[in-house]
Structures are given as C-alpha cells and as structure tokens.
Write a structure and sequence with these properties.
The chain is of the alpha+beta class and 324 residues long. The protein folds into 2 domains: 3-88, Multidrug-efflux Transporter Regulator, Chain: A, Domain 2; 134-310, Glutaredoxin (3-Layer(aba) Sandwich). The protein has helices at 3-10, 14-23, 40-54, 63-70, 80-118, 123-128, 204-213, 215-220, 234-243, 257-262, 300-310, and strands spanning 29-30, 36-37, 157-160, 165-167, 175-180, 223-230, 249-252, 266-269, 272-275, 278-283, 286-291. A 7-stranded mixed sheet has the order 4-3-7-6-5-10-11. It has a two-stranded antiparallel sheet with strand order 1-2. A hairpin with a 2-residue loop joins strand 10 (278-283) and strand 11.
Length: 324
C-alpha cells in the first residue's frame, strides 16, 4: 500500500510515517518507480507504535516492540526486551510520582505555615496564653486529663475516613493508639481567626506526618491500630488522609461525644469548640496511658513509639473495677 493509504488506515500522519522510517522502525520496500510500498505488517507496527506512545512511551522506546512483531510474534510485548521497557517506564513513573508527592506535601506544609502567619492576632487567646511557650495546652475549659488512665472507653460509634464505623469500646485485642487533635488545615480553606496565636493549636499536620512515618514501627511495637480523632467532619478528614497518604483512618466526633463520656479537655477558637491535643493508649478497652499536654506535635509519634517499646503489655482488670 502507498504511504497515504497506510496513514489513513493506521490513523497517523504521513509526516509521522516518515519519522518512523527515519528511525528505522517501519521500513517500506521500494517499487520499480521508486514509490514506497508498505505491507500489512507495517500497518500492525504503526498501530503498535501509536498504542504505546498513548501510554506515555517515547517513539524510540517502542523499538523492542516493533522488532518483536518483525520477528513473527503476534503481539509486541512477547519478547524480553519489551518487558524490560515496561519495567523501566514503571520505575521512572514511580520515581516521578514520589517526587511530586513530596513536592505537594512540602507545598501544603508551607501553605499551612503561611496561612497561620497571615492570621490576625487572637486577642483572647493571646491574653490567656501570655507567658506560655509553643506546644503548651491552649486556653480551654479547665479540664485536665489526669482522670483518664484506667477509664473504660465508652460505647460510642464514630465514622472513619475509610468508610467504616469504629466502636470505641470494641477496638479489638491488644493496644490501640488514639491521638486526639484540634483540627487540620485544608488547602484553600482558612483556619480559625488567630489560629497561629493560640498556644498548642498549631502542629496537627506535622503530628499526622509523624504517625504516618512511624506507623509500621508503632505496629511492630504492639500498636495494633492507630486512629486520629477530631471534631471535624469525616469528609474534611478524608481530604487530609488522602493528601498525606495516611495508612490509618481518622475518626470524626462532630458532636464532641467523647468529651461528654470521658471529660476530654476542649477549647474555643473562631466560634468552634475543639479538642485539645492529647493521645490515649487503649488496651482491651481501657485507657492505659495518656499523653497530655503534647509539647512537640512533630515529635509526638516518636514519643509514643518510645513508650510502647519500653512498656510491655500488661493484663487489664475486668470491666467494672476501673476508676470510671
């Protein structure tokens, strides 16, 4: 067939066919009058090149596939050299995805920091927090967390970002880490007014990074489950879980039911009532250990990991014999 007919049948331009010929991928025979003549195999080769370039391969990278067809194979990826191209392309994409994800996370962290700096001062929080250092508990309702150790988790059902419903008094055997945080920022959505000035409020995203990066180590140290918990809506939390690629679910307690059941400390900001930052280690339904306040959110996961490693699991008293 002539070059124009092949171009029409294969859905490419004549210029593209000339380029393939120049690279030695599709080589026509010559008629006595000098015209190029393409056979049916050439059409199959052009279709292979077109399909592979749609997948993101360069024209040059299609060479092993075209040569595989020329050797008599019915498909271009029957040959080892073709499989090697697949592997290299996948490795390259994986590296680029990782680099882009790191760039996205870095930009998100800069956005959160910049949004915090841009907030006007929160006068009430500034007055209440005078003399406090970053990481101290924010001004709140005066509640503490000293009473939590030994309490049974309440029979509350909370929606999780993975679509499940988690019942707090049935977390399962072994230890569960539940880290409670005020709220996390979302790209394009402002934090409460004066967030940056509230002692202990900032650092939720950094804390999530820590539990993500230490997740496998926490499991190896005996934490069968890790959950983040806040009063934000589950859809809002899911954006964070997807953006940070969290390997654990976040729990939504919009009604602040856990505050009523366990007396967790809260504070007000921007018209919202938010949980103060703390972490509970729950073993067989009982609060075994409490971390409060949390002075360094970005290093808190490592702190929890260190505690787990230095405190082997112990037996839990039968229900009804705690301080609840």
């Amino acid at each position: 067939m002539r070059v124009g007919e092949l171009a029409r049948r294969a859905g490419v331009t004549v210029r593209a066919l000339r380029y393939y010929e120049k690279l030695g991928l599709v080589v026509p025979s010559r008629l006595v009058n000098g015209y190029r003549d393409y056979d049916e195999a050439a059409e199959r080769q052009v279709e292979e090149i077109r399909a592979l370039t749609r997948l993101g391969l360069s024209v040059e990278e299609t060479r092993p596939f075209v040569e595989c067809l020329a050797c008599g194979h019915t498909v271009g990826d029957d040959c080892p050299a073709s499989l090697a191209v697949y592997r290299r392309a996948i490795d390259d994409l994986s590296a680029r995805i990782s680099a882009l994800a790191q760039r996205r996370d870095s930009l998100a962290a800069h956005l959160e920091a910049a949004a915090g700096r841009a907030m006007p001062s929160f006068a009430a929080a500034g007055a209440a927090g005078a003399g406090q250092v970053p990481g101290e508990r924010p001004p709140g309702d005066g509640a503490s967390a000293d009473h939590l150790s030994g309490m049974w988790m309440p029979p509350l059902d909370l929606k999780a970002t993975d679509g499940s419903v988690v019942r707090l008094d049935a977390l399962g055997p072994g230890r569960t880490v539940v880290y409670v945080y005020p709220l996390t920022g979302c790209p394009g959505v402002d934090l409460p007014e004066g967030w940056n000035a509230i002692p202990g409020a900032r650092g939720c995203t950094a804390e999530a990074y820590g539990f993500r990066d230490h997740h496998a180590e926490l499991q190896a140290a005996g934490a069968g489950r890790v959950y983040g918990l806040s009063s934000q809506a589950s859809d809002y939390q899911r954006e964070l879980a997807d953006r940070l690629r969290l390997p654990f679910a976040m729990l939504s307690d919009q009604a602040l039911a856990l505050r009523g059941a366990l007396g967790l400390p809260v504070f007000a900001a921007g018209g919202l009532t938010l949980y103060q930052r703390l972490t509970m280690i729950v073993s067989a339904g009982v609060v075994e250990q409490v971390f409060y306040p949390v002075p360094a959110p970005d290093r808190h996961a490592a702190e929890v990991l260190s505690w787990l490693r230095s405190h082997p699991p112990r037996s839990v008293p039968p229900r009804g014999r705690s301080g609840r």
